Amino acid sequence: MEKWWEPLRAELAAIISDSPPMVIYHYTDIDGLLGMFETGKIWATHVSRLNDSSEHHHGIKVVADCVRDAIPASSKPLVEKILSEFKRVETYVASYSTKHDLLSQWRSYSGGKVGYCLGLATNGIATLDDSTPLLEPVIYKDSLAQQVILRMLSGVDEYLQNNQFGEVEVGFLLGMVGGTLANLACTIKHPTFEEENEYRQFYQPGATSLQLEKKFRNGRFGLTPYVEVPFIEESRLPLKSVTIGPCQDAELEMYAVKTLLEKHSYMDVEVLISEIPLRF
Predict the structure, then answer these.
(1) For residue 280, is it within any domain?
(2) Which of 75, 109, 252, 275 is the most buried (most CB within 10 A)?
């Protein structure tokens, strides 16, 4: 089954994936900054605690509507089983942007204080061997998301028609479909967010050999589950730059960031100051 599934997943990825730029950016607040420097890892937040909960609701609706429209009414039990499976998949998300100085991102991630944006080399972020989660582009066009979903459901239908399985095998297949749909729901965002040009990493505890400890922090919406996702180099950020968000004293902030870089032996890292005025 996995020999069939992997080529289909590769085909789906080819529909939506452009090669990411050499450097992508992660916005964070002071706690996130210090945490990443101390551990050499990035926080992936439970999908229920993302900064804008409406963005996930949009993805869920697109996926659910497309599945219901694609599968005949006579197969309603299968539809409900697929939708139930994908909605209960536990997913953690780490977000990146292709831009290092966006007003919307400073507002979302600075927590009303000074924010920071880490420029990270993409060749140090994700691998294909489950040692780190894959890096996926966010989809800003519902029509593209629907194309991916329809191709996946078509592939699943063809496979079921040509093979005979028991309940265990069908359950395993539905689990794989549910996990993929859960990822898709997390990558689909409304077109108004397109300026972010976002990429995401997804961690699903039941769908990978990578085992990460679930932790908790005080987040924007209260108690927030998260996991620390490693980069390719153990306990080390693939760090290329740090951009300091709008602030009152840029010179002092730059000194503090450079001191932090020196303490953790990050050499040749560019330190930049946001060009956006403090009062926004």
Answers:
(1) no
(2) 109
Using one digit for the tens of pLDDT, what is the confidence trace for 32-59? Answer: 999 999 999 999 999 888 876 666 788 8
Show the domain range for 191. Answer: 2-273
Q: Please indicate, yes or no, if residue 279 is contained in any of the structural domains.
A: no
* Whole-angstrom distance, CA of residue 269 vs CA of residue 203: 28
Rounded distance between C-alpha atoms, residue 91 and residue 157, angstroms: 25
Closest-CA residue to 63 (of 181, 154, 194): 181
Is 67:79 a contact under the CB 8 Å cutoff? yes
How many domains in the chain?
A: 1
Q: What is the dihedral of CA 174, 176, 178, 180, to 10 degrees?
A: -150
Whether 29 is covered by a domain: the verdict is yes
Q: Could you report the per-residue pLDDT of 133-153, keeping only the tens digit for each?
A: 888 899 999 888 899 888 888
Judge if pTM exceeds 0.85.
yes
**Residue 82: partners with Cβ closer than 8 Å, 6 or more residues away:** 67, 71, 174, 177, 178, 181
Structure tokens at 183: 């990822």
